[in-house]
Write a structure and sequence with these properties.
four-stranded parallel sheet, flat, 8% strand, 45% helix, alpha/beta
């Protein structure tokens, strides 16, 4: 099981150099991003000036913080001053001279500012050409109104993240509860939990962005609810953050294997199995909330376990029966798993996340792999003699008071991990009674993911209370040689969801907020807000260019409220640095102003309204026709164009650094720039046809970018709002 709680976060095991290497590997695109385009050319010029090989020195290229200083800055001259024994401004001049011929087609002459900053401003005609290379969107059926999605939740196309080799993370033996009840635990609701983002990224509107040239196989472990327990607000962060990683990395062209490491194994099931041998198992026919009923039964069983020795003995025996496959124990366990997964799937559908039953690879899956992994660790990490401990860090497996432990040491022979008292802290992988632990399961999982699934990058999305645990089992796996130099493993953690009292969000009764209840409340509040807005407010800056919207049916209003409400919750979670705690506020997340999902969705719908009005006046002109060119005469037109051209940078940064807020910030900046442009530059009432078509093309590119970006965040757009 996974624990979800607040703390500071870090990406484990990444040095600055390796992080940069990952970033550059993601940037090798056919339709390159601007940052990479500039960085490559500056890297060659810097190497000439410094007398080094190209790529050895980071050109320290950054987006400019203020448009008055250009679009980008190169700050490497300051760091080269000591190395070259010259003034930074002199070095900047030399770099400027060296890079000038390489930038003549894309940038205005560089300017040297301050102690040696190089200001870079892209040429307007370059930006226009860059955006002009983006093809028209693929032909698709327009969404004339908002209708509830009626597609099946079971994809009809092959799942791209499942390896094509015989290996599969869904076991074929009867051990797994997934094959045992392949579809009975899946809701029959017709609405898809992936309603707007196409299942085949290759067929979607990629807005001109090509997949990476060297894709990797990536495993993402996220969500991790526990069987027989409700998903609560603490599961929200892991689920929506991990889902963004899955979407973005799959969009980039990587083979993504989603893993839902559910808590479906352990001593708690012995208690429940014993309890249900004399009490009826809750069902939908007998209880409104089956998972709540099972949780209440577990509480009662645990209380009896503490006071009834015979019950406790039989509960322990039931654990062994479950692990050995005793039919009755397995039947009860499978039923508990089935009703729990039903509840999980309903929440995943509400959240519009990609997780499916086939992504389940819980603790039970690794039961048969635990003993072999312990034996392998004993073989690969035997106790060392004193004369063998002189070089580098090392680890060794040895028994300690009957338990099997991994002891890890640094280069000086000091304990690598210590307890609060400063004493050696080993990692226990098998207790003295023969039982295995959470660490054993995670070691078996990482071995499976790397050596059977063939992952080259493994991402764990959990809270940071498990930071030490991940550091220890990563270190043990490396010591055993399971994590090679070509494999990256990352522990991605996050802050906590807080109430207005700045304490972890709870109900008035002091219990965690159920995620299902929170999502239901989001839809209700969004519906009420939309009803209120529908009674009155005029849109600012409408220039008479936006079509008058027809009245919505009640069904359409409810569908809009569903999309807005769920989007508001997800976006509020994603827009801040994931390392930070955030205060949950309905008013802020549902606002139609500021960095919110409703604001972004409104911006998209507003652009589509312009296009409907254009169809009435001009008959849907083809803004991607060969004779249509993009003109950037007004500063607001250029600002929108520059922001559009930076889409690839934002997506690449999320893929490399695992920071969803980067994409949120990009989309908000784009929507803000577009609103400024729309206020300054009439579109349908432009001075001439060329200007009108150019501005309509900018509008369409903005709408397509917003739709793609929100889709990567798992958020559905709305054509009319």
């Amino acid at each position: 099981m996974r624990i979800h709680a607040p703390v500071d976060t870090e990406i484990a095991n990444l040095t600055l150099n390796s992080l940069l290497a990952i970033r550059y590997s993601y940037l090798t695109m056919k339709h390159d991003n601007l940052y990479n385009l500039l960085a490559q050319r500056f890297a060659v010029a810097v190497a000439e000036v410094a007398g080094t090989k190209s790529g050895e020195i980071d050109p320290a290229l950054r987006p400019a913080g203020d448009p008055m200083f250009g679009d980008y800055q190169c700050n490497v001259a300051m760091s080269l001053a000591k190395m070259l024994r010259a003034k930074p401004r002199d070095i900047a001049q030399r770099i400027k001279d060296a890079v000038r011929p390489r930038l003549s087609d894309i940038a205005e002459p560089l300017e040297i500012a301050g102690p040696g900053f190089l200001n870079i401003r892209l040429k307007d005609d370059f930006l226009a050409r860059y955006l002009g290379e983006i093809p028209a969107p693929p032909t698709e059926q327009p969404e004339s109104t908002v209708q509830p999605d009626t597609r099946s939740h079971v994809p009809t196309s092959p799942r791209s993240h499942v390896p094509t080799s015989p290996r599969s993370h869904v076991p074929t033996s009867p051990r797994s509860h997934v094959p045992t009840f392949p579809r009975s635990h899946v809701p029959t609701s017709p609405r898809s939990h992936v309603p707007t983002f196409p299942r085949s990224h290759a067929a979607s509107d990629r807005v001109g962005l090509q997949p990476v040239e060297q894709p990797r196989r990536i495993v993402i472990d996220y969500s991790q609810p526990n069987i027989a327990k409700q998903m609560h607000v603490g599961h929200l962060r892991s689920t929506v953050i991990g889902d963004v990683f899955a979407r973005v990395l799959a969009f980039e062209g990587h083979e993504v294997i989603r893993q839902n490491h559910i808590g479906d194994w352990g001593t708690q099931f012995g208690l429940l199995i014993r309890w249900y041998r004399e009490n009826p198992l809750p069902t939908p026919e007998t209880h409104a909330d089956v998972v709540d009923a099972i949780a209440a039964d577990y509480k009662a069983a645990n209380e009896r376990f503490q006071t009834d020795e015979q019950f406790a003995s039989e509960a322990r025996l039931a654990v062994g029966q479950l692990q050995s496959g005793e039919p009755e124990a397995r039947r009860l366990w499978e039923q508990m798993c089935a009703v729990s997964w039903q509840a999980f799937t309903e929440i995943y559908e509400k959240l519009d996340v990609l997780l499916q039953p086939a992504d389940v690879c819980g603790e039970s899956f690794y039961n048969d792999r635990l003993a072999p992994r312990v034996a392998e660790l004993r073989e690969k990490l035997p106790p060392r003699e004193a004369d063998e401990r002189s070089t580098g860090s090392w680890a060794e497996v040895r028994d300690d008071r009957g338990a099997v432990c991994v002891f890890m040491y640094d280069e000086k022979g000091e304990p690598r991990f210590k307890n609060p008292d400063g004493e050696m802290l080993p990692m226990i992988i098998q207790k003295s009674d023969g039982a295995y632990l959470y660490a054993t399961t995670d070691l078996a999982a990482i071995h499976y993911r790397i050596h059977e699934l063939g992952a080259k990058r493994v991402i764990y999305v959990t809270d940071a209370r498990q930071k030490l645990h991940f550091e220890m089992f990563f270190a043990a796996a490396r010591a055993a040689g399971w994590i090679g130099d070509d494999v990256t493993v990352e522990h991605v953690t996050f802050g906590s969801v807080l109430g207005t009292n700045r304490k972890p969000l709870k109900t008035r009764a002091g219990t965690p907020v159920k995620l299902r209840d929170l999502l239901d409340e989001a839809e209700k509040r969004a519906f009420a807000l939309l009803e209120e807005r529908g009674r009155g407010a005029e849109r600012p800056g409408d220039h008479g260019e936006e079509g008058a919207e027809e009245a919505f049916t009640l069904e359409e209003k409810r569908e809009i409220a569903r999309r807005v409400g769920i989007a508001a919750v997800k976006y509020a979670d994603l827009r801040n640095d994931r390392n930070s705690d955030y205060v949950f506020s309905w008013d802020k997340m549902l606002a139609f102003q500021g960095n919110t999902a409703p604001y972004m969705m409104y911006a998209y719908a507003r652009i589509r309204s312009i296009y409907r009005k254009a169809a009435e006046r001009f008959g849907s002109p083809d803004v991607y026709a060969a004779g249509v060119t993009i003109a950037l005469a007004d500063p607001t037109e250029r600002a929108v164009a520059l922001r559009l051209a930076r889409l690839r940078e934002a997506i690449d940064q999320v893929a490399a650094e695992l920071t969803p807020h980067t994409l949120c910030t990009y989309l908000y900046d784009l929507a803000t720039e577009f609103m400024r442009f729309y206020e300054s530059c009439p579109v349908l009432k432009a001075p001439d046809e060329a200007a009108r078509l150019s501005r309509m093309r900018l509008c369409d590119l903005t709408a397509r970018t917003l739709k793609l970006g929100l889709g990567l965040l798992g958020i559905e757009v709305i054509e009319r709002m």
